[in-house]
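Case study.
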Amino acid sequence: MADASNNDAFVEFERVQKSYDGENLVVKDLNLIMPRGEFLTMLGPSGSGKTTCLMMLAGFETATHGDIRLGGTSINNIPPHKRGIGMVFQNYALFPHMTIAENLAFPLEVRKMGKSEREAKVKRALDMVEMGAFGGRRPSQLSGGQQQRIALARALVFEPELVLMDEPLGALDKQLREKMQFEITHLAHRLGITVVYVTHDQTEALTMSDRVAVFEDGRIQQLAPPDKLYEEPQNSFVAQFIGENNTLEGTVKEINNGVALVQLDDGELIDCKPVNVSKPGERTRVSIRPERVEYNKDRLSEGAHTLKAEVLEFIYMGDIFRTRLRVAGNDEFIIKTRNAPDQVRLQPGQQIEIGWLPEDCRALDA
Amino acid sequence: MSALPPYATTGQRAWYYSFRVICGLIFFFLIAPIVVIIPLSFNSQDFFTFTPEMLRLDPEGFSLKHYRDFFSNDSWQSAMWNSLKIAPMATIVSVTFGTLAAIGLSQPHVPFRRAIMAILISPMIVPLIISAAGMYFFYSRIGLQGTYIGVVLAHAALGIPFVIITVTATLVGFDRSLTRAAANMGADPVTTFFRIQMPLILPGVISGGLFAFITSFDEVVVVLFVGSAGQKTLPWQMFIGLREQISPTILAVATILVAISIMLLATVEMLRRRSERLRGMSPS
Ligand SMILES: Nc1ncnc2c1ncn2[C@@H]1O[C@H](COP(=O)(O)OP(=O)(O)OP(=O)(O)O)[C@@H](O)[C@H]1O
Ligand SMILES: [Mg+2]
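After joint prediction, the assembly is written out as follows.
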C-alpha cells in the first residue's frame, strides 16, 4: 500500500467551523490533513465536537464555514449517498428487517452490482469478520459483538477508501473490546483503507491509531502519533487527558540552554523542559509521568534537583507498584514502579527524595 | 389474567369477581347489538323480530331471501359498487398523504409541527356534521360537490388522521441512523424510503390504512352532503332503507359488512405480525 501518492492529502478539513444554532461554535477552526491509508483517532471529552466532525465528513451535517475536501475535491456540495464513505455507527444501525447477508448486499445492490459478484463479495466480507455461518440470521439474533462485526463488514463490503467509525466498541465488554480493537486495526492496515475513528477511551486511541487528534472545546489541542502525544504533550489539557499525569504548579525563574528553572509554590526549585513557557515570571504547570519519577538516588544524574516526598499509600498492582506521595503540597502525586526483584517497596510514612530527568518534566501552560 | 393468590383479602376477592362481571357486561353491551342482527338476517319473514319458528330452530323459519334480495336488487348492488369504488381510492389517498405527512412531521426541524399536526388531525375531533357542512360549501364552490373525486377526497380527509396517528406511533421507535446508514452506503433518498423506512413502518401504515378504509366504508354523514345520487354508498342506502322501506335486507347487508370487517381485521393482524417478525420483533 505504500507508494508515493500515499503522502498526498486525502481528507482535508480547512478552517472548518460548525454551529448548530447560529450562535455557539461547536467546532472552531478545524484544520486537519490526512494522508491515504492513515488510521486517525479523534479523542476528546464528551461534547467536544467529535461526532459533529464525523457527521460533516459523512455529509449529514453541513459545515457553517470552511472547506472539507476528499481526494482533492470539495465535498461540501455532494450529498451523503454520493460520497462513497463507509461508516460504522455507534449503535450499529443494522437493518432489522433484512438478514445479515441482505444487510451486506444492500450497498452493492444500490450500486447495481450483478448477483453473482454481489454474493461473492458478501461471502468474502463475512469470512473476513469470521461470521460466514451467520448470513441467514437477522440482526436481532446476534450478540452485541457479532452485530458489531457485521456493522464493520457492511461498512467495508463496498470497498470504500474512507471509513468512519463513531465509538463502535462503546457497547462491548472489555475483553471483546480488546479483541475487536486488534481486529479493526489489523483489517484497516491489511486493506489499506483510511480510517477516522472516534472514541473517548484513551487506551483505545493510543493502541489503535497512527495519529491521534485530541479534541477539546471544538478545537484540536494536539495532533500527534500516540507516543509523541503521551511523552510530549503540548499543553496541560493534553497532559492531563492522556494517561496518568502529575501536576505541580509554579513560576518560571529562568530559562537557560533549553532548561527552565521553575520555583514551585512551596519555594522548591526544579529543572524542566520549557514547552510553552517563554520567559521568567510566567506561571506554569509542570507535568511528570508517574513512571518517569525516580527515588533511587543512584539512578539520578549528578546535581539533579530533588524534592522531598512523604509516602502516603502503597498499592500493589501485580506487575507494577503504584505509590501515592505528598510532594510540594500535592497529595495526589503518583509514582509507578515495575515489580522487579530489586525494587524497594515503600512504606506509608516513609520520607524519600524524588527526582527525574529534566526532559521528562515538562513546563506547560498554567 | 393471573389466578387469585392464596393470600388475597376478602376485598381483593370481591374485586376479582366483580372485575370479571364488569368486563363481561361491557363486552355484552358492545357486542350484543351486533350479534343479534346476524340470526335475524336469516329470517324467512319480512320482520325485524324473532319469529316463533326461529325460536324453535325450525328450518322453515330461516332463509337466505334477504341475501338474495341484496344481490339481485339494483339499488343495493349499485350502492355496493359505489362503496367498493370509493373506499379503496380514499384509502390509497389517505395512506399516501398520511404517511408522507407523518414522516415529514417527525423531522425535528419542521417549523410549527405541533400546529400542523393538530390541523391535520382535526377531522377526527371536529363533529362530523360540521366537517360535512363545511365540505359541502367548499366543494360546491370549486365544483367537486356531487362528484366521485369529491367524495374520495372528503373520505380521504377523514381517513388521514388515522394514518398519521398510527404511522407517527411507529416512527417514534424508528432509528434515524438507519436512514443515515443507507445513505452512507450509497442509497438515494427514494431507495432509502422504499427499502428501509417503508418496510419498517409498514405495520403502522397497514393499520392506518385499515382504519381509513373502514372510515370510508361506513361513513354516511359526509357522503350525504358531498355526494350525489351517483355516489350512493352502502351506508347511505342502508340509511334510506331504514327510513323508507324498513326491509330486513338491511340486516343481511349489516351481517355482510360485519363479516368483511372481521376478515379485514384478521388479515391486517396477520400482515402486521408478519412484518413485525421481519423487523426482528416478537409478535405481540
Ligand atoms: N443536532 C444538534 N443540535 C444542536 N446541538 C448539537 C447537535 N448535535 C450536537 N450538538 C452539540 O454539539 C456539541 C458537540 O457534540 P458532539 O456530538 O459532536 O460531541 P462528541 O464529541 O461526539 O461527544 P460524545 O463523546 O459525548 O459523543 C455538544 O455540545 C452538543 O450539545
Ligand atoms: Mg459522539
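Observations recorded in class. Chain B has a mean pLDDT of 87. Chain B touches chain A at residues 175, 177-178, 180-189, 191-192, 195-196, 199-200, 275, 278-281 (CB under 8 Å). We will return to this complex in the next lecture.
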